Prior knowledge:
35% of the residues are buried. The N and C termini lie far apart (72 Å). The chain is elongated and about 105 Å long. It has helices at residues 3-6, 16-30, 34-47, 49-65, 69-74, 83-95, 105-113, 116-123, 127-134, 143-167, 170-173, 181-197, 206-225, 227-230, 234-262, 265-280, 286-309, 317-345, 351-371, 380-392, 397-440, 448-459, 463-492, 495-500, 503-508, 511-548, 557-570, 577-609, 617-630. Helix 13 packs antiparallel against helix 15 (234-262), helix 20 (380-392) runs antiparallel to helix 21 (397-440) and helix 23 (463-492) packs antiparallel against helix 26. It has 644 residues and is mainly alpha-helical.
Amino acid sequence: MEDSEWNYILTKEGNSNFILNFIKFGMSNYNLNTEAFYNDLSIQLEKDEEFKLKIQQEIGALLLNLKIRKYFCDENIIEENNLISVFTSRISKIVLPQIDDDQSLNSILNTLFYDKKYLNWIQKVDQDLWRKVIVHFDLNQESSIKLWIEQLEDVATILMDRIKGGYCDSELLRYMPTPLYNQGIFNTLESYVKQISEKKDFSIPFTNIEELVHECDQYLSDILMQKDQKGISLKITLKVNRLKEQLKRLKDVLNLLYLNQTSDASELVSFIITYIIQLYAPKNYIREQLSNNLNLVTFMATYHNGQTGENYITKTKLGYYKMIESSSMGGFIVAILCFFKLYISSCQLSPFIEAMGYSLNYAIGFSAIYLLKFTLATKQPAMTAANIARTFAQGNDQLQTKQFTILFSRLSRSQFVAFIGNVLMSFLIATSIFIILKHVFHLEVVSQEKATKWFEETSFPYFEIFWYAAIAGVFLFISGLSSGLFINRLRYSNVINRLYHHPVLKMSLSISRRKKIVQWFEKNAGGLFGNIVLGFLLGFAFLIGKFLGIPFDIRHITFQAGNFAIAIGGLGYNISYIELIKGFVFIFGIGFFNFFVSFTLSLILALKANRIPLKLMFPILKAVLQNFVKQPFYYFYPPSRKKE
């Protein structure tokens, strides 16, 4: 590379323009080989004293005026707002980045790296390569390094003040495990920070600070672990996450201050540059930010569902037969709901009123199934996924594989027998009711047109039917999630205790009666809420499709079985055995999509909420498949205890 070409870097003076020229020159002449570029730059700095002097002047001018306080205090630390505000804030920073005519680090970085190709290129430079180049800048003589250190000391003080104010927040005090537990560790950390940033005393080993930060972080984790007793809100979750991120940032800043005591300027600057780029790199990744904030909240839901889900997995032959009985009774109720829905559709109501009627029909029916302790097969996946997710976090790989295989085989046969009970009973009861209404009361139950439509979509289904079944699976997942979140909200708001001590109830009911009421409410409120949510989601689905003009509706295995029975009756039972068998095959196909979508979404959420890598699931699923090939019968019928 000719000397004149290197001088292109200096054609535009002035801070960010200079650095941008620097990056553009490297990208255009060295493509992706950043190491070759910086090696050649080092050689050029060694042989061309005039070029080196100009580079030093530009770098010195940049460092001398650079404002880094706000960047280190705030960048990539979650805003203490609701989730929507966090999301819109991130979006606005991407669409309209903060670029001011000043020397703030945030403004300069947004100018340089708004185009991600520049960021991707500069990220390829590692710390050793930065140091190799920076050593030629003679930064040991620059007063700007001292200004950087002073700003970092201010950052440490600001972060400590924010942390101290945050952990004393009135909303967090209710979670304090013991009255004085938190006071000592946070006060000690504050004294350490003051000793370092104000007195310039580095006699405390950095390992002591790391241990203390870890203790403070553990205290914040202990707050979150009280969710099962006291519940937790999204606002509290965001506050705790913010404090955790501030603690980590404080530790990193203190580490830089300690590094300044033991390293030369080139090593310090290379370390700071690497750290700054690491902070900036995930800036625009909204998915990661939202994902991190939702992890703890979703754990509340999956924890509750995991407890409830134990009732949906049969372990013994007795439990298996009880599941047949329970699911059959669930199918019985669904068959009745099919006729109510058919009646609502025949009343020529407006679309909204019709959707409301469907929703109430579903919600009342599902709530009745829940309160009577019957089983709706498709409710199982969302309730059992958290249970399954926890097996991934236990023991070594062999133990995980064995536990998961046993649990999955139990879930498989429980789901299978629940499907059988739901479908057969729904079909038989719907057939019986149809016969009574048609031949005893001489009513026209269903029109020929509707009977033909229902029969054809079951025996000769088109793709959209399975798409509708998948939509129903999503709604089943949402209902399971909403149930857990509702229970968590009750705990957080202390609703049970407030209900027990309600003045009206105190005046009108005895203590024992009030206890029974609140115990019943605590036990059933979450389940009822989830079933009501599911009812309204299913009921309004067709209205969304009509309003938007898109294929959007639902199909549910148990309701499809009831509708199939009504359709056969409406056609005068004039069908072949082949068509009947095909109908049942496709009904179970609908059930598969109901189950697969709901279970997959619930399992992914449960794994994420428990911070378990998704990739851990695949080798275990392979082992399950191998086990199924060896012992397929056990996935449909329970073995003896010794054989399992």
